[in-house]
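As promised in the previous annual report, we have extended the structural survey to additional targets. Below is the entry for Metalloprotease.
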Amino acid sequence: FVPPYVLQHVAESEAAGDEARESARATLRTDAKIRQQRVALRGPAATEEAHEAAPPLQLKRQIYDAKNTGDLLSELARKEGDIRTEDRQVNNAYDAIGITLKFFHTAFGRNSIDDKGRSIVATVHYNEERDNTLGYNNAMWNGQQCAFGDGDGIVFDHFPDSLDVVAHELTHGVTQYTAGLEYEKQAGGLNESISDVFGAMVEQWHFNQVASEADWLTGQNLFPVGVRGPALRNMARPGTAFNDDILGPDRQIAHFSQYTDDLNVHITSGIPNRAFYLTATGFGGFSWQQAGKIWYETLISKDSRIHPNCTFKEWADVTVEQAKRLFGVSASIIVRNAWVAVGV
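The corresponding structure token record, generated without further manual editing, is:
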């Protein structure tokens, strides 16, 4: 969730204390291992099976407490149907997963991340490096489950406290079981953007917000009050989310003219993020009813242009066609104009 270049800036910042710098370095080491595991554990992508209406949703959640270690299944802290615990992070992860799965089921008829009722496993208080006493500064999907760090309490706070963070990570699972997008170049930017897009919609759905009322910020609960910036990403205005001595400037880009293949996927995701924002606000009303439906139908599409190395242009073309199929020519014009505005 937190881009590596942000953590690298923290690790090298003279404005950060020794503990914060070491916590950032430890998180970078852990993230590098997780990225390798995620590739090895990649699940099946979409098949040619017909998409059927989801049966009634039956939530199946298991929340584990890593107890500040790297043991993902150290101790089962709460399972489906259990009463609330005294651990806020356990409860927040449990609740946010439930909200996210209910959103996908209600808005799109999807039955869990694999559309087959898959159980969801998540781990809180995750921290692979025991020497990192402050806590893991990130959240992740490793191909099988989610894990959330506590943050260092200096630069980042507890990750399960942000609903959109949890929804973002679960959406990586949805992408894994549908388009199966790679995590590099334009496909990687799309992969990250799709998680931001659906994370934003989950939050808006939960708070009953129309597109014009939403803040379009991602990770707005992660920063302590001393950090200069309201969030980690701004979908409406990529590149403006923060500017801080410790974190550095927000490096996201908003237009394809700024794109190169060597940019990090968290940077390039700003392009499709803004395209979705423009689409959702162009339609007006609730983002998931039209813009979200178009993005979801594109994600599960069997169109040959939606493939693991999908480009922005391929994704954009299919969204335009889905808009016309679902809502007519006028809708396709709104979507096309959004992509033109970001240079795709």
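The CA atoms of residues 155 and 225 lie 9 Å apart. The longest strand covers residues 61-69. These points will be discussed at the next consortium meeting with the crystallography subgroup.
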